[in-house]
């Protein structure tokens, strides 16, 4: 999988962000570091908390409001972008590439078990994103695999139903105790 990091930086404005709609041009995978804010992606509002991962894909409509404190990661799979003077708010073509398997099924917000799950990866990316291509690509791949594994684990655990102790006892009594 060939890609380029076109943005990897800390974003912590001094004032709350005002909601301004924009169209996502590239793949954005951000982690919230602060107390949280509101993110709207394709008309669905999410309360984003510390440690949450926001995944935005090309063509989605989005805005954030409130006190954002995040590490921003933007990826280019089209080989058409440059990290020079890049801004998510600039006009430009929307990246194509719905066939990127590790990003295709990710939800817009991923809430890890621990708020600290992904912070070490992002901190390392901040250090090497534009100075060590091999290390940064390995970190991005680690991030993508972990996000997919966490999402799968969350979806799998939602599908399982937990039987209450009372249900288990009643089932046992019905199957093992006679009415006589």
Structural class: alpha+beta
Largest sheet: 5 strands, antiparallel
Beta-strand fraction estimate:
15-25%
Q: Please provide the ordered H/E string of secondary-structure elements.
A: EEEEEEEEHEHHH
Helix percentage range: 25-40%
Strand order of the largest sheet: 1-8-3-6-9
Helical segment tally?
4
- How many DSSP-defined strands? 9
Radius of gyration computed on alpha carbons: 21 Å
Structure description:
The protein has helices spanning 101-104, 119-128, 133-159, 165-176; strands spanning 4-11, 22-23, 27-32, 37-41, 44-48, 53-56, 61-65, 70-76, 109-110. It has 4 helices and 9 strands. The protein has a 5-stranded antiparallel beta sheet with strand order 1-8-3-6-9, with helices on one face. A 4-stranded antiparallel beta sheet has the order 2-7-4-5, with no helix packed on it. Strand 4 and strand 5 form a beta hairpin. It is of the alpha+beta class and 180 residues long.
Please outline the helices and strands.
Blueprint: E1 4-11, E2 22-23, E3 27-32, E4 37-41, E5 44-48, E6 53-56, E7 61-65, E8 70-76, H1 101-104, E9 109-110, H2 119-128, H3 133-159, H4 165-176
Antiparallel strand pairs: 1-8, 2-7, 3-6, 3-8, 4-5, 4-7, 6-9
Task: Describe the structure in brief.
By secondary structure, this protein is an alpha+beta fold.
Keywords summarizing the entry:
180 residues; alpha+beta; five-stranded antiparallel sheet; four-stranded antiparallel sheet; 4 helices
């Amino acid at each position: 999988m060939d890609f380029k990091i076109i943005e990897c930086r800390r974003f912590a404005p001094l004032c709350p962000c005002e909601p301004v709609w924009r169209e996502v041009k590239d793949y954005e995978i951000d982690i919230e570091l602060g107390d949280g804010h509101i993110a709207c992606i394709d008309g669905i509002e999410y309360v984003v908390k510390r440690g949450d991962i926001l995944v935005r894909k090309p063509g989605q409509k989005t805005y954030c409001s409130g006190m954002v404190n995040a590490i921003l990661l933007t990826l280019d799979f089209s080989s058409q972008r440059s990290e020079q003077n890049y801004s998510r708010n600039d006009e430009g073509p929307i990246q194509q590439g719905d066939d990127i398997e590790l990003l295709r099924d990710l939800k817009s917000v991923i809430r890890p078990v621990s708020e600290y799950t992904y912070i070490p990866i992002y901190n390392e990316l901040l250090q090497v994103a534009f100075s060590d291509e091999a290390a940064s690509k390995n970190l991005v791949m680690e991030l993508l695999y972990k996000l997919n594994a966490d999402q799968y684990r969350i979806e799998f655990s939602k599908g399982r139903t937990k039987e209450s102790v009372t249900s288990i006892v009643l089932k046992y009594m019905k199957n093992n105790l006679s009415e006589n």
